[in-house]
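Posting for a labmate who doesn't have an account.
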Amino acid sequence: MEKSNSLSVVILAAGKSSRLGEAKQLLKIEEQTLLEISVKKALIVSDDVNVILGASADLCIEKIKNFNIKYYINKEFESGMASSLKLGISKVEKNKDALVMLCDMPLIPSSHYENLVKIYSDNKKRIVCSKYKENFLVPAIFPNRYFELFKKLSADKGAKKILQEYAKDYVVLEDKYTLDIDTKEDFDKVLATKSC
């Protein structure tokens, strides 16, 4: 797949992982951290990658400093995902659109991101998101005309509200890819599949 020149990827990796008890960004699957896995998948889509860090930022930077990407530290990461989303969207280059992804969903294959970009390429004015059952969710591509909506998000509200209201185009996310890592049990399930 040819990389997109009109997309900036925003990886949300600032969370404190309080239920897990350790930095999930630094959990390893086959010798790679979740953060490294996310960055590599993002670089398949675009050379313009922005990582939003918060908890354990110094340790995370050590893992990604050799990639040709940008990273930003959200000093307000404890206030919830909205602050990371706002920071990430604010760092997207003018005239570019944003692919927002989470670092705690390592089972999503590169092909899913590629399919999002293919649909987006046909109509760059519409949001393209992932769909699981009846829910629209990230990873998702947001054209820059929707960026103002992110300013209205608060606390731990992510992009879901925007997606439910405005998304029309989507790529179905298979059940086996939807697991995000919030607990030790979640991580054990991910390790059992080893589909990264």
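Reply:
Got it, the structure tokens are right above this. The first strand starts at residue 7 and ends at 13.
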